[in-house]
Structure prediction request, 133 residues.
Amino acid sequence: MKFVLIALAVIVVFIVANRVLAGNFMSPSEAAQRVADGAAVLIDVREPSEWASSGVAAPAVLLSLSDLHSERVTWKAFLEKNKNKELILYCRSGNRSGVAVSILAEEGFQVANAGGFKHWKSAGQPVRSVDQD
Prediction:
């Protein structure tokens, strides 16, 4: 019985931690509208192999979370250019985009989490293919 209670507590903590890291999700239609209005930029934070294997949201800028964590080769100029826009991020499921949202919010950027690419696709939003270099 004690093991079951401990396992249940661990599961609850894991679920709550994922929600806190991921933040509140913005719907695909709201994200698409903000991007179309020119007030926001949609960013796919997955890795290049993921972009190539599944495609990406049509209006998305492709900036990996790994680059945000390291040298910011692609992120640095992008952030400077878009410092006054809302940055709407997504990944596969919403967890990595939640991590990126937390990092960028701490740096003073206006950010939102659009969840996962699967949500974008299932909402019927436009997608495009990406060739892997």
Remarks:
- The chain has one domain: 2-128.
- The helical segments are 2-22, 28-36, 48-54, 65-69, 75-81, 95-106, 117-122.
